[in-house]
Structures are given as C-alpha cells and as structure tokens.
Amino acid sequence: MPTTSTTASMSEGHRTPPRPAPLTARDIDLAGFARELDALKRELRSEAGQPDLDHLAKIERWGRLCTAAGYATAWLAPNPLSALLLSQGRLTRWAMVAHHVSHRGYDHVPGVPEERTSRSFATGGRRWRDWFDWIDPQAWNVEHNRLHHYRLGELADPDLVEANLDWLRASDLPRPLRMAVIAFFASTWKWTYYAPNTLRVLLNDGAQREGGAPRTLASMWGERALWERCLVPYAAAHFVLAPLLFLPLGPAAATNVLVNSMLAEWFTNLHSFLVITTNHAGEDMYAFDEPVSEGKGEFYFRQVVGSTNFRTGSDFNDFLHGFLNYQIEHHVFPDMSMLQYQRMQPAVKALCERYGVPYVQESVFTRLRKTLAVMLGDADMLRATPNEVAAPSGA
C-alpha cells in the first residue's frame, strides 16, 4: 500500500505533505473485511461478563475519587490541582460512563444492572444522578449516537469539523484572531457548542416530523428549552449550590470553591476538546460526499478511514484519554464496553493491515496539530466517493 511519511515531510521546513497516492475501495475485499470484523465482535460478545462490569465500576470509582478529592481541597485556596481533579471527574461522567452506557455498550453484558443499560441511564429523574451535565441526554442520543455515528464524515454529520468551521476557514480574519476564535470555542465548547447543537438537532428532529421550521445554532440562544434543560441547571449546581455548601467554613472557602469550579470547567472544556474534536479531523482523515451505498463492508471501511486512534494501552493512559483513544474500534462497533475496546484494538489494527485498510494511530497532540490546520484552513480533509478512497499519509 503506497503511503507518504507526514512526519518526515513536515520536519523539512514545515511544508505541506504531499497528497496520498490513490487506493480504490473496491480493490479491498470489503465483504471479507466485514466478515472477519463481525466474527471478532461475536467472539468478544460471547466472553462478555462480570469483568466488563467490574471495569466500568472501577472507571466510575476513579472518576468519583477525582471529584471527591477535588472538592475536599478546593475550599483551601484557588489551585490547579483541585481544578484538574474536578475536571477529570466531569470528563469521566461524560466521555467514559455516559458515552459508553448510552451507546448500549453494556446492554448485552450478562448481569448488568438496569441503571447501567441505555434504557434507564440518565432518563427521567435519573438524569440528575447519572449524568448531570450541560448536555441533555436525549439530545445527545439523537445528535451523537444516531447522526454522528451513522453519517460519519458526511454533511449530515453534525460534528464534521471542516464543514462547521467553513466560515472561519474562508474568512479574511488575521491568523492570530482566527487562533483566538478557536481558543475561545475550545475553552467553552461544552456550553457554546455541544449543549445548543445537540438540543438543536433533537428539536429539529421533532420539527421535521411536524413540518416546522428548522432551528440554527445561533437561534438556539433564544430557545427557552436550552436555558431550562441545559444551561441554568448545570450552572446553578456547580457555580452556586456547590460553593454555598462550603459557606459554613467561611466566605473565603465558598469563594475558593467557586473559583476552582470555574477553573475546572475551563480545564474540562479544553481536555474534552483535545480528545474529542481531534478524532475525525486532519489532512489524512476522510469526509464523504455521498451516504454509504454498498453495505456493511463499506460502512466499516468508512469508520476506519474517517477516524483516528491515539495511544492505547493501560487503564490509566485510557482514563486520561477519556477512553476516546479507541475511536476506530468504537466507530466500527459503537455498542461495546470499554474493556472490549481494549481487547479488540490489536486485532482490529492487524485486520486493517492485512486487508490494506488505512489505520491511523498517533499522539493526541499530533492529532491536535492536524485538526488545527483544518480549522484554520491550512489543510483540507480528504474527499472521496465510496469508490475512490486514498490511503492517508502516515497510515
């Protein structure tokens, strides 16, 4: 399979790497590729059991310990350690627990408690206990679980970075100002992008069925539902109620908790931006002009060439990456447990190598650099029809 070394090209005067040599999807045995992937999934599913549930419980426990340690020290003084612990606790609930449970990652595991199934998790009143975040769980299910995963890289994908930032990429703003715009959204994106955009998709889904006018991202700020379901409850709990609980220790203690909670919010926005936005962006990632038309093999193929993994390995490494470092495996099979992703990753990578399917795995910071290049308009996503897919550089 012909490839080009991005690292070598970029080190020589930071030049833009050459475009990859063409590889036609029909040159790949997509039916065989799909058959072997499905066999791998069946094997892992047959082994699902208590270890998967114990692993989920351990990750939840680590997240809660981070939150507890953060609040236990947050009242002493404004400090980055308490804020980072609070931030990691918030990331754990979203990226690791809510993300995988809502994707039905544990529905198939024998003995799974009802509250850790997609049917019950964060539904109704359990929303405040299971996943109390800026994002409405029902809206997340439509925007992320349905549209993003099954329209990956298409214009119908609500999280297609290149399309969402067309206005910035084409703007005449000075480069430092464009960088400042990206920095602002990276620092606030959970409530400036994800909360309104997921709810927008949910409301538009209902409006489409009823013949109503679609909402834009900008118009969402005038929607009462956004404030009532997303912004006000979260802000009130974390920036009002939590500091007030420390008021018996004195006004300074309550103020310190407020400052650390706000600092944690900044950290968790930056952290989640780093490990989420970079999953499907870069000059070596594919976007698609047409929906999947040739069955499961093409679907699996697109999930691989439209996604990238970060460094994988130990639970601690994966915990810091929010378990979003298995993005290829997660997009091929969204309904698997975190432990199953760890176990299947080497086998999926080997299958891709054997079938000639490009498999990209790089440091999250390398992926950040490539994502920023797309956001700034310095690089473009690779475009292909289902029959014209090229091997990404560095694959």
Summarize the structure in words.
There is one protein chain. The relative contact order is 0.17. This protein has 16 helices and four strands. It is globular and about 70 Å long. The model is unreliable at 1-22 (pLDDT under 50). The protein has helices at 6-11, 30-46, 50-74, 80-102, 127-130, 137-150, 161-164, 166-169, 175-210, 224-245, 251-276, 296-305, 315-320, 327-332, 338-355, 364-376; strands at 22-23, 286-288, 382-384, 389-390. With 395 residues, it is an all-alpha fold. A two-stranded antiparallel sheet has the order 1-4.
- Enumerate the strands of the largest sheet in spatial order, edge to edge or round the barrel: 1-4
The residue-averaged pLDDT reads 91
Number of strands: 4
The arrangement of helices and strands along the chain is: HEHHHHHHHHHHEHHHHHEE
**Ends apart, CA distance between termini:** 10 Å
Oligomer: single chain
What value does the Rg take, in angstroms? 21 Å
The secondary-structure class comes to mainly alpha
Count of discrete alpha- or pi-helical segments spanning 4 or more residues? 16
Largest beta-sheet characterization:
2 strands, antiparallel
How do you describe this structure in short?
By secondary structure, the chain is mainly alpha-helical. Helices cover 59% and strands 3% of the residues.
SSE diagram, text form:
Blueprint: H1 6-11, E1 22-23, H2 30-46, H3 50-74, H4 80-102, H5 127-130, H6 137-150, H7 161-164, H8 166-169, H9 175-210, H10 224-245, H11 251-276, E2 286-288, H12 296-305, H13 315-320, H14 327-332, H15 338-355, H16 364-376, E3 382-384, E4 389-390
Parallel strand pairs: 2-3
Antiparallel strand pairs: 1-4
